[in-house]
Design a protein that fits this description.
Bound molecules: zinc ion
Shape: elongated
Strand order of the largest sheet: 1-2
Structural class: alpha+beta
Largest sheet: 2 strands, antiparallel
Distance between the termini: 48 Å
Helix content: 40-55%
Number of domains: 2
Length: 93
């Protein structure tokens, strides 16, 4: 594994100083927090959009089979336009 800081790569098993590792750790912690916040905000917006689409789209239902594993497949009903599943739309109603 390689660590990246300021566009330089450092091999993980090389002799890295504690200070350096801590600075990398802090940078990663900050980045992960920021990305988690972005995911959370976008997921909320997506949920709202899906709720609106569930009510607003003139759904065009399509039935398909999805492989659960090698031996089993499940029937799934989804809208060809908005891609929401029939179950999601029914729950949103
Ligand atoms: Zn639809």
């Amino acid at each position: 594994m390689y660590l990246k800081k300021n566009n330089y790569s450092y091999k993980m098993d090389s002799n890295l100083s504690t200070e350096f590792l801590i600075s990398i750790k802090e940078e990663y912690d900050r980045e992960i927090n920021t990305l988690n916040n972005i995911i959370s905000i976008k997921q909320d917006r997506l949920d709202e959009i899906n709720d609106i689409l569930a009510a607003q789209c003139n759904h065009d239902w399509q039935t398909d089979y999805v492989d659960v594993d090698v031996e089993r497949s499940e029937i799934i009903k989804y809208c060809k336009k908005c891609n929401l599943t029939y179950n999601t739309v029914c729950l949103a109603a």
